[in-house]
Amino acid sequence: MNADKTAMNAERTAAMTAERTMSTDKTRRSQIDADCGNLARGAAILGTGGGGDPYIGRLLAEAAIRKHGPVPLVAVDDLDPDAVVIPVAMMGAPTVMVEKLASQGQFAQAVNSLARYLGVTPTHIACIEAGGVNSTIPIVAAAELGLPLIDGDGMGRAFPEIQMVLPSIYGVRATPMSICDEKGNSGIFDTVDNAWAERLARPATVEMGCSTIISTYAMSGAQVRESYVPGTLSLCDQLGAEVMSARAAHRDPVAAVAELLHGRLLAGGKVTDVERRTTSGFARGRATIEGVGPDAGRSVVLQFQNEHLLVELDGTAETSTPDLIMVLDAETAEPVTTESLRYGMRVRVVTAPSDPRWHSDEALALVGPRYFGYELDPVRFDGTRGVAA
Amino acid sequence: MRIGIDVGGTNTDAVLMEGNTVAAGIKRSTTSDVTSGIVAALEGLQEQRAFHPDEIDAVMIGTTHFINALIEQNGLAPTAAVRLGLPATASLPPLVDWPQGLVRAIGGRAYLAHGGHEFDGRTISDLDRDELRRHADDIRSHGIKSIAISSVFSPINSEFEIEAAELFREELGDDVALSLSHEIGRVGLLERENATIINAALRDLADHIVDGLAKSVSGGGIVAPLFLSQNDGTLMDIDFARRYPVATFASGPTNSMRGAAVLSGLDTCAVVDVGGTTSDIGVLNQGFPREASGEVSVAGVRTNFRMPDVLSIGIGGGSRVVDAGERVGPDSVGYRLISEALVFGGSTLTATDVAVALGRADIGDKSLVSGVDTATANRAMDLVAEKFADVVERMRTSSDPLPVVAVGGGSILVPDELPGLGTVHRPEHFSVANAIGAAIAQVSGEVDRVYAISEGKRSQVVDEARQEAMDRAVAAGAEPSSVAIVDFDEVPIPYLPGNATRIRAKAVGDLALGGLR
What we know:
The structure holds 2 protein chains of 2 kinds. Chain A is of the alpha+beta class. Chain A has helices at residues 3-24, 37-46, 54-68, 94-97, 106-118, 137-145, 166-169, 194-207, 221-227, 232-248, 253-260, 361-367, and strands spanning 31-32, 71-75, 84-92, 124-126, 149-153, 177-180, 186-189, 211-215, 219-220, 229-230, 264-279, 282-291, 299-305, 307-313, 316-320, 324-329, 346-352.
């Protein structure tokens, strides 16, 4: 990455951070208490169709907090530049995770294993991914270790592969990374680049029984301040709370989600067709939604690979990865995962901006539509094309 | 001939069936001892159409007793939950997300032990027999007689659950009741384990209730075998019911849907069952209710056992009609319909009044609704029709045409034509549809497993799964020549190697009556 671009990115980050700080000040949380229902629900929405079972994530976090006490939450911009930050996440198949639950201490072990290899004493735990179960796994590690958690993450959403995080484009390395199974086995990968981390950790995860806890992207407080999406755990909590209060007040919870995420309501209708196929370990597919009510006569096509990655309206691409595409139950705003999509469901599609840094050239090489095999240039959440301001 | 009985919270319905024809049908009040209500219903059948007890080939009973016992926390046995999987799973021990009141009601105690399998059948750790013996000592010292055993990935490999059960049997004696999770639920440890614990807590009660049911039937001189209907509309014999009471939980809506199918002669249809306050809408596929795909919460506990996919809406015969017919329900006069509705001399405009005013039904005193504004009545009925049509539309799984069958006391609310869906079928005997559903229930076998499908082997794996489901149906008592696959589902699982695919196959067949006598 050249110096100009770095400076430009830093400026953009500063502007964005200021904006987010203003919008989340009154809702920013200072700690996570033993009720994680809202946070898990919001995280499932940011999971954009993937990200694993938020129910298990919530139970894990709540059980850890009941045992060890609330987890202090530290804002990204309050972080000491010298802080030693270790993110932690689950890697593997959600289907396995709901059956072979984690062992006690598996989360702390992943962090300790990496810290030992690096010869550091961690001061903070962090989320690498805000969407789905990986927003709650770090809460468990932080509780077990008695460390504060950072209110932010490396994506601002969910993506399927290790290298798909903003710190990647700021030169932060995924490795050394630790990988731990529930039996007590652990390993360290030290790879030449982040793509190799994904390539080696995936088969190790399979061999360890398809549900591992990893610690990756260890970084300084300064690196977190530069590369993280701030406020995402507070945002998850606020999203979940907003959905519940909209439902209770008979307001439209789907519109509430769109508003909170500064996104737009694309269209609503009935799922009329779902096709799925598995290619190289990933569940790919497409779903067709026929408009009903005010959207009668319109047709929405969703393309997904674990997460929703492309949405077309009447044959025109309306939003693509890396911006967020969320399929929500038309009435309750309960997020619909790509695995649970089926004929007859009444859903509405909400699109929302991703962190603007995802639209840089090197970020698009990681998570743009072409990386996932779709032959088109990225389309922003509002339907515009090309590089956004 | 067969007798079908549905023991509901309010009514005990009974039918006498000759083949698929209803020879007699009766409704009696459910009694607190259950037995006398059933006896009264059997006598009622005799009065309608005399039969000799020897003519009866089988008696099928659907009951809501077990689920009501759980909800009322009534008669539950002290229960131990033993989970095999250490060192995995310790982050969330058994009973973790249960309502505390229910944990107390079952005297629930949780035990973790080594064991469990990986998704591909390797072991997580070996069973530790000394550890299990220590748990057995503790279980004995707390006077617990019912144990729920779960093991990680037991739907793929059940050997540890079986081995642990044998050990507990040796340690604690034959009067300890054992419930094994692989026989009760599917992949999803907490939900399967929860269903297993509920089953274990109901074991004492199951003996008691099944004995009562058997006594009331044999009291009428009937020597034919007795079956209970399960959540999925198939049958279990009474020994199975003693061991798996949890399998009866949703037999009520299932039976009424199955009965609707037989009465209408449609085996793939949507069924609208209209009661006084709410209506249940479900879909039958080849005669069987489609199952809910996700988790089902029962008495505040998440489970994943087989439940029919039913949507309830707040429209029934007693729904209040307000705002000049712009709003119908969800508030209802409920059981006070017979005093509060206009046609019964009351002062509340209900959906039933509107149907009578429009000449759709003849209930109560028609003259009492002559003053109802026709525009209001039409608006209200159009609204009700739209809501039914909307829910049926949601329940469809494809764009193929789906006929609609209306049953239940309030089915006069369903118009002859539903917008976009066509003619509505209204069978005779609609008020005892659930007893008919019990009487015609069949026997099933199921496979639900994750398979690694290697290149070019897909059809072979699929054939094996289908055959195994059919073999299981025959083993459960189905007539082999009648067994067929009724449900098949294949879902690729992301992030697993080797084209891992979850296959679910379900086979059903007619009960082999001859062999059971």
